């Protein structure tokens, strides 16, 4: 079985860019790499409902923390067979967001910490009930909220399909979410975490070497 590696961080932290760079670095070391990004917009009905809710559709669905959390979880549950197949045929499966995103954002919305009720609920739902594979390593791409916000703003201005959603537009939520991510990493929630400075030039070659040892 391959290693399941997850990149986590705030909206605008640079997860997609890191995933692309890390994939190349792993390939350069001879590793086979499978990739996936959550939510799976355009490929999952649950993901599409999430995006629509975050942009003001479907009434008060976006107001429900547990309702939104369930949709995120169902999107990943729908990818379970694909994840298992990828892990069976690749050295590394690299994910842009995973279960910890659900834990961090829901806790931040409810003003709870990593030890709160909603984080336990996410773990029980996604890992224990849905049977999603536990990551081998989770990488927290840590950046100051201001840097992440500026990147998200630039992305919305330059990419036609990346308008900021309700979560991305809430600076206070992003601030709280960053704190929860720090707590999850410190507690090694689900698996070991590697915290990297997303505002600096990350040494992806060293990171790739770490992931393969």
From TrEMBL:
GO terms for molecular function: ATP binding; dTMP kinase activity. InterPro entries: P-loop_NTPase (IPR027417), Thymidylate_kin-like_dom (IPR039430), Thymidylate_kin_CS (IPR018095), Thymidylate_kinase (IPR018094). Residues 7-173 form the Thymidylate kinase-like domain. One of its GO terms (cellular component) is cytosol. It comes from the Bacteria. The keyword Transmembrane helix does not apply. It is an enzyme of class 2 (transferase). It holds the Pfam family Thymidylate_kin. It catalyses: dTMP + ATP = dTDP + ADP. Keywords: ATP-binding, Kinase, Nucleotide biosynthesis, Nucleotide-binding, Transferase. Its EC number is 2.7.4.9. Gene3D superfamilies: P-loop containing nucleotide triphosphate hydrolases. Coiled coil: none annotated. Signal peptide: none annotated. GO terms for biological process: dTDP biosynthetic process; dTTP biosynthetic process; dUDP biosynthetic process. Belongs to the thymidylate kinase family. HAMAP family: Thymidylate_kinase. Phosphorylation of dTMP to form dTDP in both de novo and salvage pathways of dTTP synthesis. This is Thymidylate kinase. It comes from Amycolatopsis suaedae. The lineage of its organism: Bacteria, Bacillati, Actinomycetota, Actinomycetes, Pseudonocardiales.
């Amino acid at each position: 079985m391959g290693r399941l590696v997850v990149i986590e961080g705030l909206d605008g932290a640079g997860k997609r860019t890191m995933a692309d760079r890390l994939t190349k670095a792993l390939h350069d070391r001879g590793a086979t790499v499978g990739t996936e990004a959550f939510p799976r917009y355009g490929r999952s009905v649950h993901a599409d409902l999430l995006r629509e809710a975050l942009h003001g559709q479907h009434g008060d669905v976006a107001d429900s923390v547990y309702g939104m959390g369930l949709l995120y979880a169902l999107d990943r549950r729908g990818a379970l067979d694909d994840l298992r197949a990828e892990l069976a045929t690749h050295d590394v499966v690299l994910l842009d967001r995973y279960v910890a995103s659900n834990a961090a954002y829901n806790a931040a919305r409810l003003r709870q910490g990593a030890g709160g009720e909603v984080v336990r609920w996410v773990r029980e739902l996604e890992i224990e009930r849905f049977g999603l594979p536990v990551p081998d390593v989770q990488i927290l791409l840590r950046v100051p909220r201001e840097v992440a916000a500026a990147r998200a703003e630039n992305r919305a201005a330059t990419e036609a399909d990346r308008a900021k959603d309700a979560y991305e537009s809430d600076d206070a939520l992003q601030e709280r979410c960053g704190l929860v991510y720090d707590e999850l990493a410190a507690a090694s929630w689900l698996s070991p975490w590697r915290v990297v400075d997303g505002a600096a030039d990350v040494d992806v070659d060293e990171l790739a070497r770490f992931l393969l040892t």
